[in-house]
Amino acid sequence: KILIIGACGQIGTELTQKLRSIYGTDNVIASDIRKLNTDVVNSGPFEVVNALDFNQIEHLVEKHHIEEVYLMAALLSATAEKNPAFAWDLNMNSLFHVLNLGKAKKIRKIFWPSSIAVFGPTTPKENTPQYTIMEPSTVYGVSKQAGERWCEYYHNIYGVDVRSIRYPGLISWSTPPGGGTTDYAVDIYHKALSDKKYECFLKEGTRMPMMYMDDAINATVSIMKAPAEQIKIHSSYNLAAMSFAPEEVADEIRKHVPGFEITYAPDFRQKIADSWPASIDDSRAREDWGWSHQFDLASMTKDMLEHLAADLK
Ligand code: VAH
User: Could you give the CA distance from residue 16 to residue 18 in angstroms, rounded to a whole number?
Assistant: First the structure.
């Protein structure tokens, strides 16, 4: 059985649906700090859990005979900068709780999401390699970088089967983003349909690695399904699909929404974006466990706008 912690969040919501469709509704226990998403809460087993409370997590694991945990609870980059101490506490200690359940052999397998935020201003920006300089400058990035080190440590020293992906910015029509620097790439589609214009909090030319949620979920499912011997990196895998700047999404949207306008009013998130890579080399994920993406900017834009327009009707 599977436990998803943070099941009501941006990734957790869609991951819960996908895992339930693959493994059966009753075999996937969704959990979050509150009942934040009625679809998730009403579509199968749901538990309220505080990811910072080891005893609560352990209790759920025992009660439901959990074998696999997906830890999706976290504070994202922009929110984390507003509350660094809490971000560090949540992002690190929830991970320790789950890793320690793995060490105690109470669970068999763990998924933990990392991010391209592990890279920093001194990292090579284009085609950022798997192994390179990593000096993250955000508290979110520092927590992901430290988390990766601990994942590898728990694997090497205690034999814990923990698997991880460095997600790029994720774009979904069905779930809102949760306080990240890449959120504009979701907001822009909503505003294109509602207002025909969008004021972007990042400036023109800010290229970042991005991915459609369908691809991100497929990657997550497939790294977890892969035979253990195919997983050769125990910190976290680089993962990529596309890279674009705000004006490039705007151009693509304009093919479907003629007259769409974008303006720029960069805020504190510009500095965070500037510290991250523009594109990512994910060849190890492709070689080791057969990763490949399906959506590029054009196909994602078409799919996003179709779904969002249908929702508005
Ligand atoms: C954020 N979307 O902006 C997240 C992320 C790629 C960055 O992990 O904080």
Answer: 5
Say if residues 253 and 192 touch (Cβ distance below 8 Å): yes
> Measured from the CB, is residue 168 less than 6 Å from ligand 1?
yes
ipTM for the predicted complex comes to 0.95
**Per-run averaged pLDDT (10 residues), the chain, 313 residues:** 96 97 98 92 95 98 98 95 97 98 98 98 98 98 98 98 98 90 96 97 98 98 98 98 98 97 97 97 98 98 96 80
Structural domains in the chain, sorted by start: 2-169+213-238 (3.40.50.720), 172-209+242-279+295-312 (3.90.25)
- Site of tokens 């997590």: 57
- The string of DSSP letters for 269-302 reads HHHHHHTS-SSB--HHHHHHH-------HHHHHH
**Enzyme catalytic residues:** 140
Collect all residues with Cβ–Cβ distance below 8 Å to 159 and sequence separation of at least 6. none
CA of 189 to the centre of ligand 1 (A): 18
Whether 169 lines ligand 1, by a CB cut-off of 6 Å, is yes
